[in-house]
Amino acid sequence: MRHITLALSLPLALFLASGSLARAQGRAAKVVVDVAEKREIRDTQAVLGQLVAMRRADIATRTAGVIEKVTFIIGDRVRQGQPLVELDSSRIEIEKQAAKASLEVARAGLDVADAKVKLAEIAFKRQDGLKSSTAFSRARYDDLKQAAVQARSERAQAEAQMHSAKSNLNRAEYDLRHAQIKAPFDGVIIARQAQTGQYMTIGGTVATLLDVTNLEIEADVPSNMARGLRINDTLTAVLEGGVRQTVTVRTTIPVQNVSTRTRPVRFSAKLDKLQAGHTAIGSSVSLQIPVSGPRTVLSVPKDALLQGPRGWLVYVVEDNKAVPRPVQIGQAVQDRIEVKSGVAAGDQVVIRGNERLRPGQSVRPQQVNAKPAGSSPTAKRG
Q1: Dihedral of CA 149/155/159/164: which sign?
Q2: Residues spanned by the domain of 81
Q3: What is the enclosing helix (H) or strand (E) of 37?
Q4: What's the whole-model pTM score?
Q5: Is residue 341 part of a domain?
Q6: Is 31 within a domain?
Q7: What is the mean pLDDT of each run of 10 residues along the chain (382 residues)?
Q8: Residue 260 belongs to a domain with what CATH number?
Q9: What is the number of other CB atoms lying within 10 angstroms of the CB of residue 33?
Q10: Domain check: are 232 and 334 in the same one?
């Protein structure tokens, strides 16, 4: 009896399973689709470059003196205007007070000289007015005229002394103002040359400061490729960690390396992603340099690609059915990839939900709303 029951149960189970499978196959799968479309690309060749800082400064002293205080260590991030080193300013204060006193003396001397000029001119004018009188004396006239000239000369000398005293005071104030050495721009201290108690001469270096907020990319590009680059041309760079970045040609430096037949090219970019401190100056950057003129190719999103047993394929939606199409792929075009055969412009290709599709399966396509930017070319296994 047990064998009879088992024999009856098995066909029943198979029948129920086949019915469940048929119902599952009859349900339309929800998928997201995008359009196969033409894009303009250029063939490129990878050239290795590096991150460089636009500003790097050896911070120098503008006045001589003994270092009294150092307020930084290597690796500190500093802001523009932040004090870094303080020199002993006692001597400069003394010189400033002496310059002030000399200026006061010079001003007093100028006042005396002004008074002498006025008196000499009054006396001379009085004598000059007596020319038609019997009281006029030629000798007295000549003496007073010479006295007026001498008074004016002494006044000019006193004025020059006052200007000299002002210059001495300005110099003392300049030295006092620059006894505190400040950061000329925002950056990171990468070297320290100053130590407390050290005597610094004018122009001596106290620290090396690197600007890590204004970065560029520099690459030695083969001359035949560099000649094809134009200012403001845009291309793709891949930073450390696989971060893709659009960069712009800023300038091609007109100097050729004879041995390597390359020219240095500078690229500018908004490198905000590097400010977290994970990427260092000098880090490698792979630049995709164009080696041909632009050409138009048919492309599909990278997410549409599946790796099948016989190569790459995509699912195309035809009459709400998923139809597999073997494709031959070419060059990457940002978040898309060139397709040389297998699809036509305007075809609806499945980009989400394609991993579970079967040939001929019914689908409910939904058009993609936003295309992912900068996605990596990761192939999916089908």
Answers
A1: positive
A2: 56-88+179-210
A3: strand 37-41
A4: 0.61
A5: yes
A6: yes
A7: 42 41 62 92 88 94 96 96 96 94 92 89 84 82 86 91 94 96 96 96 96 91 92 90 88 94 93 58 91 86 90 94 93 85 93 91 85 46 46
A8: 2.40.30.170
A9: 22
A10: no
